[in-house]
């Protein structure tokens, strides 16, 4: 008995201590009440907080507690169903198909009540993707002195960022993107900050408060899309710890700063949409950034022959570069061989330029390439054997060139391919009906595509069991819609062909959009069509030869176009 006495005393002591500290089943009562009060101030249309009942708040959705103290240390209520944080959830305007962001139906609405101040041990707070009704960020958030992560992006805040956020001396990650802030960001001193994200915040200028902060740990500065009309201030390049610098889609101008070479740790640089004087020669200093992996210069008017860029990418960048975006940069000339020397390249975008000639076989040296985007150039000739060697390729966009695919075998090695757009090009489909491609498409676009030797639905489409989107408009197809198209389809665009017969032949459980405008469909529109396509929201059958009555029951249909038929 005597040996067990100390253990019994210790157990009794811990039980009493738990009562005094207000710990109930791993959750402190004062913090549980604070969360309940916070919940009362919210409108929760999708019942995301249905688990917020009972005594143990540590088991509630989005709540995390310390295993030792029982304190709430994490509140993560991020709306992960939001597709695009650029538009807030203040309205649900209907465009073309459906709500601009269906994820708004899952957004929490309302106020952030001051009761949250009771969560003094909180180190992670994420309320992104919800909607707080254009109210200012609460000042009391600056009282969370242990906070290391704060994400309020796309949460419908408006007004000035409270100066109190500058008191978050332990903060490492700050994301206030996709809200609307007036005046300047007043962040004061954030000595341990590592990441600042202020994307699309309507800043209009570089935040002045950042110019006098002595950042020593900052690795990420993201100010994209803020309508900043100025040169790049020198203080940006004094933050030598920077690894990711995103300044794209502002209105930056002037000379490209030589001081960018001070950022020796830089791994990503985005200056898209900027206008620098003296052409690409001003961008030449980036050739000395030997850690640079990502370079976005989309729609920077380089206005040069692409061959002249070789000197920039012939040094250490040749080994480090993984993502290169030179779309819309007014490049001209033949597709160069030197691009095949950037062996670690995973993504290459040269779209919307004036490149001409054929794609050289040297492109096949890029064995890691996953995304190749060449649309809207003047490329011609056959799709090279080089492209056919890119076994890692997932996304291939050749839209609006004058290329031709001589046979399906040119794609035979592209086993990872999920997206292909060869619209406005030509393709020879000469494989037998039993050919099984090595790839599984999610999206295939062949609009205005010359299908040889005759326009038809390629029989191998029936093997594409993951195909969600198929675009075959203006392809000259003169046959009926086959009954073997993939049932996985969600978007089927077949306008401006000569397709005949009817459309009741196949069950499409997931089809959302069906566009058959301006074809040669005839006969009655079967009342069973609503059963064959139960998810249909958009149906366009205008300019055909359909007769009979319009089916009355479509459970989800929002748009129906039937003009120029014989109903």
From TrEMBL:
<dbReference type="InterPro" id="IPR001611">
    <property type="entry name" value="Leu-rich_rpt"/>
</dbReference>
<keyword id="KW-0675">Receptor</keyword>
<keyword id="KW-1003">Cell membrane</keyword>
<feature type="domain" description="Leucine-rich repeat-containing N-terminal plant-type">
    <location>
        <begin position="30"/>
        <end position="66"/>
    </location>
</feature>
<dbReference type="InterPro" id="IPR046956">
    <property type="entry name" value="RLP23-like"/>
</dbReference>
<dbReference type="GO" id="GO:0016301">
    <property type="term" value="F:kinase activity"/>
</dbReference>
<keyword id="KW-0472">Membrane</keyword>
<keyword id="KW-0677">Repeat</keyword>
<protein>
    <submittedName>
        <fullName>LRR receptor-like serine threonine-protein kinase</fullName>
    </submittedName>
</protein>
<keyword id="KW-0808">Transferase</keyword>
<keyword id="KW-0812">Transmembrane</keyword>
<keyword id="KW-0732">Signal</keyword>
<dbReference type="InterPro" id="IPR055414">
    <property type="entry name" value="LRR_R13L4/SHOC2-like"/>
</dbReference>
<dbReference type="Pfam" id="PF08263">
    <property type="entry name" value="LRRNT_2"/>
</dbReference>
<keyword id="KW-0325">Glycoprotein</keyword>
<dbReference type="Pfam" id="PF13855">
    <property type="entry name" value="LRR_8"/>
</dbReference>
<keyword id="KW-0433">Leucine-rich repeat</keyword>
<dbReference type="GO" id="GO:0005886">
    <property type="term" value="C:plasma membrane"/>
</dbReference>
<dbReference type="InterPro" id="IPR032675">
    <property type="entry name" value="LRR_dom_sf"/>
</dbReference>
<feature type="signal peptide">
    <location>
        <begin position="1"/>
        <end position="26"/>
    </location>
</feature>
<feature type="domain" description="Disease resistance R13L4/SHOC-2-like LRR">
    <location>
        <begin position="274"/>
        <end position="492"/>
    </location>
</feature>
<dbReference type="InterPro" id="IPR003591">
    <property type="entry name" value="Leu-rich_rpt_typical-subtyp"/>
</dbReference>
<dbReference type="Pfam" id="PF13516">
    <property type="entry name" value="LRR_6"/>
</dbReference>
<keyword id="KW-1133">Transmembrane helix</keyword>
<dbReference type="Pfam" id="PF00560">
    <property type="entry name" value="LRR_1"/>
</dbReference>
<comment type="similarity">
    <text>Belongs to the RLP family.</text>
</comment>
<keyword id="KW-0418">Kinase</keyword>
<dbReference type="InterPro" id="IPR013210">
    <property type="entry name" value="LRR_N_plant-typ"/>
</dbReference>
<dbReference type="Pfam" id="PF23598">
    <property type="entry name" value="LRR_14"/>
</dbReference>
């Amino acid at each position: 008995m005597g040996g067990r006495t100390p253990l019994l005393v210790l157990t009794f002591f811990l039980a009493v201590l738990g009562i005094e500290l207000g710990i109930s089943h791993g959750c402190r009562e004062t913090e549980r009440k604070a969360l309940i009060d916070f919940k009362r101030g919210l409108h929760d249309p999708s019942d995301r907080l249905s688990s917020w009942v009972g005594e143990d708040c540590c088991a509630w959705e989005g709540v995390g507690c310390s295993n030792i103290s029982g304190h709430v240390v994490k509140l993560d209520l991020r709306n992960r169903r939001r597709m695009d944080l650029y538009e807030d959830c203040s309205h649900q305007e209907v465009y073309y198909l459906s709500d601009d962001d269906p994820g708004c139906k899952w957004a929490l609405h309302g106020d952030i009540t001051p009761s949250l101040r009771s969560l003094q041990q909180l180190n992670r707070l994420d309320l992104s993707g919800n909607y707080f009704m254009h109210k200012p960020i609460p000042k009391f958030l600056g009282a969370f002195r242990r906070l290391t992560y704060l994400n309020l992006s796309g949460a419908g805040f408006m007004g000035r960022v409270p100066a109190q956020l500058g008191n978050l001396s332990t903060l490492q990650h700050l994301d206030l993107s996709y809200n609307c802030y007036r005046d300047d960001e007043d962040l004061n001193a954030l000595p341990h900050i590592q990441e600042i994200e202020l994307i699309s915040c309507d800043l209009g200028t570089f935040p002045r408060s950042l110019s006098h902060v002595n950042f020593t740990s900052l690795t990420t500065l993201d100010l994209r899309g803020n309508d900043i009309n100025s040169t790049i201030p020198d203080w940006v390049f004094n933050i030598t710890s920077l690894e990711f610098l995103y300044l794209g889609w502002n209105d930056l101008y002037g000379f490209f700063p030589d001081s960018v070479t001070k950022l020796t740790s830089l791994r990503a640089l985005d200056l898209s949409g900027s206008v620098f004087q003296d052409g690409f020669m001003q961008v030449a200093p980036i050739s000395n950034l030997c850690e640079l992996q990502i370079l976005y210069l989309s729609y920077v008017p380089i206005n040069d022959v692409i061959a002249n860029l070789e000197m920039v990418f012939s040094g250490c960048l040749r080994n480090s570069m993984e993502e290169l975006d030179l779309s819309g940069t007014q490049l001209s000339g033949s597709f160069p061989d030197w691009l095949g020397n950037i062996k670690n390249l995973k993504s290459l975008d040269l779209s919307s330029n004036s490149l001409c000639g054929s794609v050289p076989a040297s492109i096949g040296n890029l064995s890691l390439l996953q995304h190749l985007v060449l649309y809207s150039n003047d490329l011609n000739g056959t799709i090279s054997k080089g492209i056919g060697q890119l076994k890692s390729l997932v996304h291939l966009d050749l839209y609006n060139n004058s290329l031709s695919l001589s046979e399906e075998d040119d794609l035979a090695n592209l086993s990872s391919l999920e997206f292909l757009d060869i619209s406005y090009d030509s393709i020879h489909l000469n494989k037998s009906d039993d050919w099984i491609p090595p790839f599984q498409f999610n999206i295939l676009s062949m609009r205005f595509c010359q299908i040889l030797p005759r326009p038809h639905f390629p029989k191998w489409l029936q093997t594409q069991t993951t195909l969600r989107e198929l675009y075959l408009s203006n392809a000259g197809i003169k046959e009926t819609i086959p009954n073997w198209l993939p049932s996985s389809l969600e978007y089927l665009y077949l306008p401006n062909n000569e397709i005949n017969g009817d459309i009741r032949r196949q069950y499409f459980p997931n089809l959302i959009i069906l566009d058959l405008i301006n074809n040669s469909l005839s006969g009655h529109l079967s009342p069973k069509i609503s059963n064959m396509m139960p998810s249909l929201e958009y149906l366009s059958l205008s300019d055909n030869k359909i007769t009979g009555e319009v089916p009355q029951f479509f459970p989800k249909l929002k748009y129906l176009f039937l003009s120029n038929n014989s109903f």
